[in-house]
Design a protein that fits this description.
The protein contains three helices and 44 strands. It is mainly β. It has four domains: 38-181, Glucose Permease (Domain IIA), CATH 2.70.70; 192-336, Immunoglobulin-like (Sandwich), CATH 2.60.40; 352-463, Chondroitinase Ac, Chain A, domain 3; 469-554, Immunoglobulin-like, CATH 2.60.40.1220.
Amino acid sequence: MKRILTLFFIFHFSFFTLSAQELPQGYFRNPLDSDIGLSATFAEFRTGHFHSGLDMRTGGAVGKPVYAAADGYVAKVSISPWGGGKILYIKHPNGYTTVYMHLNGYAGAIGKAVLREHYAQKSYSISKLFGPNELPVKKGQLVAYSGNTGGSGGPHLHFEIRRGGAADLHTHSTTINPLHFGLPYTDNIKPVIRGLRIYPEGGEGYEVGKDNTVSVSGPFHLGIYATDAAEGSTAKNGPDRVEVYLDGTLFFLYTTEAVPIDSSRMVNALLDYPLFARSRQAYLLTRALPGAEGPWVPVRMGDGIFRLKAGSTHHIGVKVYDIAGNCAERVVTVTSNPNIQNTPNNPNTQNTQPIIYNQPFDYQQSLFSIHLSPFTLYADDRLRCETEGKTVTIQPTVNDIPPHQYYSLSIKGSLPGVPAEKTVVALVYRKPGSFKYTAHKTTHADGWHTAQVRDWGEFTLAADTTAPGAYPINFKDWAPLKGSTMKVKIFDDLAGVETYHCYLNGQWILGEYDGKTATVTIDASGKLKSGTNRLRITVTDGAGNTTDVTWTVTK
């Protein structure tokens, strides 16, 4: 029996699973015409989330036909300039939902229904649920075209199979590796173990050498960096399974058949996050943090720390598997030498406050206050809280991992000549000789400016009094228009574009916004009149500044 397993760990022979059931083999088809080649595998490590599906290659092109993976009905369409871009959800009679992301467009009756919804909501960004009888589909029916919309880094189809969840088909759902449903996929290339690291307790981590021998002192945990490749796929995809053995006995197991979407951000706590942020090298750590267990692991036995008897020698074996069962192995000989002096990792605890990960935390000074809900951190820590002028620095001192959820940050003060409503809480990014801000949506009351943030770092008050910008790309004011498509660049220097609207000759018209290029594309086919036409665009940023501009084009 094939078992659905969420991310789980085995310590001292004990493990727990989310659920177990038969997966329907052959029920779902490949949503593309071409053989499956992957630019990203299921549950690869990403900043802030596990990759929740398969990224199927489309030959570097958009517009490839996308077919329904099985009979069902269109249950939801979601469109945004960010994230998954144009998304299609198809619900199936067996209780599963297939999800298709980064689409270029929708086919047939689906496309017509989506277009109607854009105009009904007068918005490019929409989310629409459909009933079982509105848009039925058959297995193999053309439903969409592949694309590069949203946060996509290049043309491809992101494909998921989900089960469960709330009415929105997202919250509380679990996404399952589509390859476990028997989709045809060729992989005869074994994974590569690219690095192993030793992390002494209280000391700095270091790489295991090519001779696979190491001496340690005291407790430690292990980090494993491995990638996989397959025919027609990218060379550094994520592996499917990692096993660690201590003297031949299973000590740690990581596998990724399914991931609860609500808990996806916990990926940050499984990695050497600072190293991953710097180098994109994803070292999976054997150690467990108490706040990273999640609802799908009700019990965890052990903590993933190696505790070897002083003077003893042991063998730590690492096996990494891909979805096809190809295996890479490495064995490290470890000697426990109590005479070794580990390089200490002594964080500066000045101006820090103790915080217990599963309890609320409130701290206030005269010029700032913060509130963290329980489980914002993954383990007990000390939080550095420092102020300098209107700048606040908030940073954990033990585990340098981003917070699991948003917390509230309030800064008191005013900026000379700047109204309160134009003042934003901003995260400061510093580089040698320069810096930039990323603004957060800010509320104001009694001289306090409050934002919900999900980063650590340096925060300050910044003025956003500049209206967004907008300028034409492929046409000029009072000039003949070539074709029927108009492109306009819209942008904002701080708080970001909040809303925009396009009007042609006084009537709202759909403008498709690409967040990657900050470009709005307006297809005016059949809507341009002979002679002069007026295109008006209004753009409002997160601080309420608005630009309202009109151009005249002739046809």
